[in-house]
Amino acid sequence: MTAIERLEKMLAAGKDSPMLRYGLGDAYLKANAAHTAVDHLRRAIEQDPNYSAAWKLLGRALVEGGSPAEAADAYRQGIIVAEEKGDVQAAKEMRVFLKRLEKKNKQTRGFL
């Protein structure tokens, strides 16, 4: 049984939680299913808006899914959440990811 199958089985059994949704998001992202990962990560954040790791992974999933503007928004919100929690490392990482997105956006003349 794969990690996705195990986690989906837990979800089907009613064990929904932010951590389970984060795990599903991570597993789907590793399986190159960014859009499904985004769905689970958004659910994790709905359940726990202060889950800074979920914000960070959501940003990455949105980038990989081809939604850089949404990714930038997720990183911005994630930075706020992480700073309010005192999660310095997560805030720092999201700032770096956001800066890279903004730089790439500027080079391609996109709109973030």
Give an overview in words.
- This protein has 112 residues and is mainly alpha-helical.
- It has one domain: Serine Threonine Protein Phosphatase 5, Tetratricopeptide repeat, CATH 1.25.40.10.
- Helices cover 79% and strands 0% of the residues.
- It is built from 6 helices and no strands.
- The protein has helices at residues 3-12, 18-30, 34-47, 52-64, 68-85, 88-108.
- Helix 2 (18-30) runs antiparallel to helix 3 (34-47), helix 2 (18-30) packs parallel to helix 4 and helix 4 runs parallel beside helix 6.
- The longest helix is centred in the C-terminal third of the chain and has 21 residues, at 88-108.
- It is globular.
- The N and C termini lie far apart (40 Å).
Order of helices and strands: HHHHHH
Q: Which range best describes the helical content: under 10%, 10-25%, 25-40%, 40-55%, 55-70% or over 70%?
A: over 70%
Question: Stretches where pLDDT falls below 50 for ≥5 residues?
Answer: none
Largest sheet: none
- Average pLDDT rating: 95
CATH topology heading: Serine Threonine Protein Phosphatase 5, Tetratricopeptide repeat
Shape verdict: globular
Sheet/helix structural class: mainly alpha
Total strand segments: 0
Radius of gyration: 14 Å
The CATH fourth-level homologous superfamily: Tetratricopeptide repeat domain
Task: Name the CATH class.
Answer: Mainly Alpha
CATH architecture: Alpha Horseshoe
Distance between the first and last residues' Cα: 40 Å
Strand percentage, roughly?
under 5%
Number of domains: 1
Q: Helical segment tally? A: 6
